[in-house]
């Protein structure tokens, strides 16, 4: 008999390896500046900030950022993006945003994209995962969090 256990999103802790880590933060635009938040209003513009730390050069790295069901990307179409000295391809799916990085050199990268809060309620924000496609043992994910939209 297999017993399944589900965990609350707040209980999921970040996991990293010595070569790679990822941290996910949400913030809201208050009209003047971006402010860290986990509570939003319908219609708010929300910024996702993913901080990647790589201790070695890697090729073909994929970031999968799961979104709360209330969030819709501001930029809907897939496109190449230049940020932090990286060129990567961003693709939005129904429940996540994927970033495909061809070459990730050693260092720290702060990658962002924006969303809109569309529905009121309590949601799981989802975790951001990162993995080397050449060496799948090099992988990490961010901590989980709950999101409230009023």
How many helices does DSSP assign?
Answer: 0
**Which sequence of strands runs across the widest sheet?**
7-8-9-5-12-13
Rounded to an integer, what's the Rg over CA atoms? 16 Å
Give the SSE string: EEEEEEEEEEEEEE
Write down the overall geometry. Answer: globular
Strand-pairing-aware structural class: mainly beta
Poorly predicted regions are none
**Major sheet description:** 6 strands, antiparallel
What does this structure look like?
- With 150 residues, the protein is mainly beta.
- The chain is 0% helix and 57% strand.
- The protein contains no helices and 14 strands.
- A 6-stranded antiparallel beta sheet has the order 7-8-9-5-12-13, with no helix packed on it.
- Strand 8 and strand 9 form a beta hairpin.
- The radius of gyration is 16 Å and the shape is globular.
- It starts with 19 loop residues before the first strand and ends with a strand.
List the helices and strands and how they pair.
Elements: E1 20-29, E2 34-36, E3 39-40, E4 45-54, E5 58-66, E6 71-73, E7 79-83, E8 86-92, E9 96-104, E10 107-117, E11 121-124, E12 128-132, E13 139-141, E14 146-149
Parallel strand pairs: 3-14
Antiparallel strand pairs: 1-2, 1-4, 4-10, 5-9, 5-12, 6-10, 7-8, 8-9, 11-14, 12-13
